[in-house]
Design goal:
The protein is mostly helical. The chain has 11 helices and 2 strands. A hairpin with a 2-residue loop joins strand 1 and strand 2.
Length: about 250
């Protein structure tokens, strides 16, 4: 860690400005800049990027920005500002892709379950686009299936976590023996052990629906950011791309 690097500093400032905007303008900011499901009426193309700078509360912002500073600064110092920014945004877009793909799966599972009981797909989508749902759906399909379908369609995603998870993975690959001191664990843990466990917990929560860290977390966005971060960092290392700085 140490002195904050320029790109990391600017990213933190942008996130802080967006957070201030949510405090001043509330729901309209979340409506415009969060990532909505593509078939939702609130979806706009710019949300693919802007949701990475939105946060649901101060602690959400604080932990993401702390991780960005702690793990992003050494990477920017090694890679250069342009290369780090490219990596950061690419990991965030990878997280978006995985999160949205999983939501498509959840939506289709719910629609298929209802269609199999004689409800037309057009009617289902009309109800969803109106921001409603039929309580009777829970009587003819599994509760978890309907719950996942409704959440996928109607719950927007916010946060830098997907991009930050990519940064975490790249940090772990670049500095595997760095010892991390965590607030909730009294002993230091090497990055090469802690980061895979953290991603594994997110994958477990995403698959099972049992969230260790609380509700409202886009676990597959975390996994997606980590996956794309790993692919990029692995490819760069394999091709000696880590030795090239983009300044």
């Amino acid at each position: 860690m140490g002195r904050i690097s320029n790109t990391v500093k600017h990213l933190i400032i942008i996130n802080a400005i967006f957070f201030l905007g949510t405090q001043l303008y509330g729901d309209i900011m979340y409506q415009w800049f969060s990532l909505w499901f593509p078939e939702n009426e609130y979806f706009n193309f710019w949300q693919v990027f802007t949701h990475m700078f939105m946060h649901g509360g101060f602690m959400h912002l604080f932990f993401n920005m702390y991780a960005l500073w702690a793990f992003g600064t050494p990477l920017e110092q090694r890679w250069g500002r342009q290369k780090f920014l490219f990596f950061y945004l690419s990991a965030g877009l990878g997280a978006t892709l995985i999160h949205t793909s999983v939501n498509y799966l959840y939506l289709q599972q719910g629609v298929d379950a209802l269609v199999s009981q004689g409800i037309s797909e057009a009617n289902i989508m009309e109800i969803l686009r109106a921001g409603k749902y039929s309580p009777g759906w829970y009587d003819i399909a599994a509760q978890s299936t309907i719950k996942n379908m409704l959440s996928a369609f109607s719950t927007p995603a916010v946060g830098a976590s997907g991009a930050v998870y990519g940064v975490l993975v790249a940090f772990g690959m670049a500095f595997p023996n760095s010892e991390l001191f965590l607030m909730f664990i009294p002993v230091p843990i090497k990055a090469k052990y802690f980061i895979p466990v953290l991603i594994g917990l997110d994958l477990f929560s995403g698959v099972t629906g049992y969230s260790i860290f609380g509700a409202g977390i886009a676990h597959f966005a975390h996994v997606g950011g980590a996956l794309f971060g790993f692919i990029m960092a692995w490819y760069w290392k394999k091709n000696q791309f880590n030795n090239n700085r983009w300044d």
